[in-house]
Amino acid sequence: MSDDHVYMTLAEGHEDDTRWAYGTGFEDPLHGVDTAVPDGVDAGELAALCVTLADDALVSAQRLAEWTTRAPELEEEVALANIGLDLLGQARLLYSRAGQTDGTGRDEDAYAYFRDAGDFRNVRLAELPGGDFAFSIVRLLVFSSWRLAHFERLTAHRDPVLAAIAAKGVKELAYHRQYAAEWAVRLGDGTEESHRRMRRAQEQVAPYLGELFTAYDVRDEVVAVLRQVSEAAGLPMPVYRPLPGSGRAGEHTEHLAPLLAELQGIARAHPEATW
Amino acid sequence: MVTTALDTRRARRIAEQVPDPELPMLTLADLGVLREVSLASDGTVVASLTPTYSGCPAMAEMRAGVAARLREAGYARVEIRTVLDPPWSSDWITADGRRKLAEHGIAPPGTAPARATGPVPLVLSPPRRSVPCPRCGHPDTEETSRFGATSCKSLWRCLGCREPFEYVKEI
Predict the structure, then answer these.
(1) Which of A132, A223, B22, B106 is close enough to B101 for a disulfide, judged by CB 3.0 to 4.6 Å?
(2) From which residue to which does the signal peptide run (chain A) (predicted)?
């Protein structure tokens, strides 16, 4: 720690594997965790589930990070970035678990940086462009309500690693949902303009709700939470209008590829680089 | 073996004293992230750490810190393991840790909400918590943001001395 310049200081000390949140080639976040897949668990299915959940989290984290320097208030910028960071952490753990179980031995970077849009299994809701603050809040409310309910079920998964990742995630997601729900009420029950924007955001999100409810039956639980928030916010329940195709099958909107180009550009230009 | 027991205790003491990279007034033991230190039969020190939050960027730094301190203390073989289960709770911050946080102007967490199994209820108007100001002790404070400079903290403001302060969230 000889240099006063903050980035120089962070870049020092690679020899003793001191690393901060930059670059690629991090130590496996599941380092030292028992990686055996229990009897009776289909390793391929487990890996596919982990990739799906990780893709949702990674793409959402990227959209949330886009608010940095652009949020209406510093506090909201910090909040949205923190929520993104939690999701990024969940993605890292889930990609690592996928690599241990799908037979390829890939690390988290291989999943995040070296797959193309067609290989991603995230819901299209996650990849839609940021829009205004109301849109981000409505999307986060729907996404975190669904993910919290889903993770809560996954705490009983027969794979102990996925169950542990889920148990940790439940605590984080409860904070995310709380944040989104409180803002939804504040904006829905706020000024005419904020109410109008919330209504518009609900319309924009509606076609993408169906994709969330494919695995596990958490639909009723999520709808009940959304109804609770809508009533408190003086907003109607979003009308479900399904759209053909599904991100779960690798069918994405035109927005995912540019998002990935930004996310993956440096890692692909300088493979194996660490900094 | 007596030497092994002594050696394990010494290794544990060394690992316990490693400071947290983001809350440097706390040791990893104060924070409750150091779960176990043991000595394998071949002399390898095995230290188990648990992350506070999934995305905590300080985790790699913590691992490296524990490994470096143990090597400096003469343990040639060190293995750091990650433990995910049970997930970290702010309840694991020790009494000593809470005192140090308060001394440094950071309000320590209250008791984490008990988690029953089943759906997590959404409470839209949670009862206002009373968090006394860690600087002046004034009881009237308000939350300005549930998310702060690190994952584990929220931002608060004292209505007495008007100073902002951080509060370690219950989780």
Answers:
(1) B106
(2) none
Confidence of residue B38 (pLDDT cuts 50, 70, 90): very high
Q: What is the 3 state secondary structure string of B119-142?
A: CCCCCCCCCCCCCCCCCCCCCCEE
Residue A66 touches partner B, C-beta closer than 8 Å: no
Q: Which domains does chain A have, with CATH numbers?
A: 41-269 (1.20.1260.10)
Sorting pLDDT into bands at 50, 70 and 90, what band is A6? Answer: very low
Q: How far A28 CA lies from chain B's nearest CA (Å)?
A: 9
Q: pLDDT for B10-35, tens place per residue?
A: 999 999 999 998 899 999 999 999 99
Specify the DSSP class assigned to residue A247.
G
Nearest chain A residue (CA) to B49: A32
List every span in chain B annotated with CATH 3.30.300.130.
2-82
Residues in chain A: 275
CA B106 to chain centre: 13
- On whether ipTM exceeds 0.85, the answer is yes
Q: Which helix (H) or strand (E) holds A174?
A: helix A160-188
- The CATH number of B2-82 is which of 2.40.50.100, 3.30.1490.20, 3.40.50.300, 3.30.300.130? 3.30.300.130
Put simply, the answer to whether B54 touches A174 (Cβ < 8 Å) is no
Tokens of B38: 């043991």
Beta-bridge mates of residue B49: B34, B82
Q: Chain A residue with minimal CA distance to B156?
A: A75
Q: What is the pLDDT of residues B145-158, one digit of tens each?
A: 888 888 889 999 99
Report yes or no: B14 and B28 within 8 Å, Cβ to Cβ.
no
How many angstroms separate the Cα of B146 from the Cα of each of A14, B62, B103? 34, 25, 22
Token pair recorded at residue B169: 């969230």
Q: Nearest 5 degrees, angle CA B98-CA B102-CA B103?
A: 115
Would you call B151 and A85 a contact, using CB atoms and an 8 Å cutoff?
Answer: yes
